[in-house]
Design brief:
Chain lengths: 375, 180
Amino acid sequence: MIEKDLINKLAEFKKIKPNQDWVVFCRKNLVQQMESDKANESSVLTRLSAIFKAPDHVFGQFPQFKLFLRPATVLAVVFILIFGSGLTAVFAARTSLPGDRLYSVKIALEQAQLLITPSQEGKTNFQSGVIASRLQELDKVVNAGESIESKQPKIEEAMNNLQRQLLTVKDELPKLDGMEAKKAVEMAKKIDANASQAQQALSQAKLALSPEMKQNLNEKINEVADEADRTSNRALEVMIKNQDEGGGDIHKEILAKLDEKIQKTEDIMKSLATDKLAIGKEFSINAAIILDETDKAIEQARLNLRNDDMEGALQTIKAANELVKSAQKIVEAENISDSDKSADTTNSGKLDSEIPSVSDNASSTPSVATSTPAE
Amino acid sequence: MQSNEQKFLDFYDKNVMKIYRYVYFRVGSQEAAQDLSSEAFTKTWQYLINGNRQIENLSALIYQICRNLISDHFRYNSDISIPLEGVSDNISDKIIGESESVIVGKAEDCFQLDQIKECLKLIRPEYQELIIWYYIDDFEVPEIAQILGKTEGAIRTSLSRAIAALRDQIERPASDVDRH
């Protein structure tokens, strides 16, 4: 290949873009991180000025008070909070929920507790507990008897916090490699269980929401569920790596989990086919090709399992999941487009007074990006 | 939103695609690229606010953070196998919206692009970076020199070596391919 051809080919890679949903999510995450940092800083400053009886803006004016965001000083400030303002405020913060005034203090207290936990095992255990805490919060805000306007932002915040915690825990998993194999496996199993609980909690949340909120939050729920799946996969990687010294029936447990994941992907494929049949349509060539490749990937994963190649099976399952998600997006886009067309056809032959109310699919389903996994 | 936050978000909006592409071509996985890119932005922000610093060259900082994250990624996933993303890239990105009749032609192009993508991962990391920045993300030589802290002359020399290395890797017979 001559260099000029190669350079022209390289230019084609400019078309590779990240998934737009991910870009938006990542930005939202950053904004929340910035707001959380600001809230921590201002709640610290507020408490300090109350303790020292000085106006907030006095402390805010001095840049050196940014030192209070550093780990050691966060700890010192937490002690001041506890002993300066009493335990009442601290206990109140511990039971607060997303949207409450003291919720940012609750997060700050968790961060302080994490900082003083010395061992990696302790940190992972603590992080696992934080996920459980996020799940409880989500359950409470979903089931609170409030109006949609008041409830929806709190549910979104709860889901964003859960997603962030899953991300944090997933990024910590590689650090388990430095641990004794048995402990690493135990920690990874815990995280995998957390991720499964998160997926269940999200499914239950979906069922508990009103149709309007379900529609508004559907994309977010799917995003967080994907994050939980990725966390579970990373935990499985640790378990597979350490299975020889992991002890017990870890080998069987891993096989069972991998089989469960394959089954889940197959179920999604079947439900896509069922939905298409129900509306009397066939898959487009694009969707059919992708589903065909998914089918082959699933077969490959099962073969890997039979050959006891668990790592290979997991990688293939991950690829199959990406493919089936692409297929889902294409099918959703096609369904919306078909509904729009049939609504137009129905309307064109009728007098204004005879136009029926537009179906839910046509009018209210959010538009789905037809572009697929970024590349 | 105060000015530092807004400045950083503007930086994010302008650079997220480039950072994603840089990480994607280095690690070869969309999922890993998303995770690592997201972490790079978060870590860069944390670095700025924890030290209360003004950084002149934010691009240099974030790319350095990306490099560290990529090193850690390979260290903790040293036996990661190449994912099937080449297949899904072909099908989902290149074929969507095309009629059936052009699929065969597109498939050949896709195969070459996949081959280039895989060979890119096999050359030296320094060369990978230069190719991604210059030929894919349209960085100018002075920009690259500023990120790497080198002279423009050194960058031009390295660029021609990088593209030659990639070409040689592509032309190597399959039996000689040495995957790391």
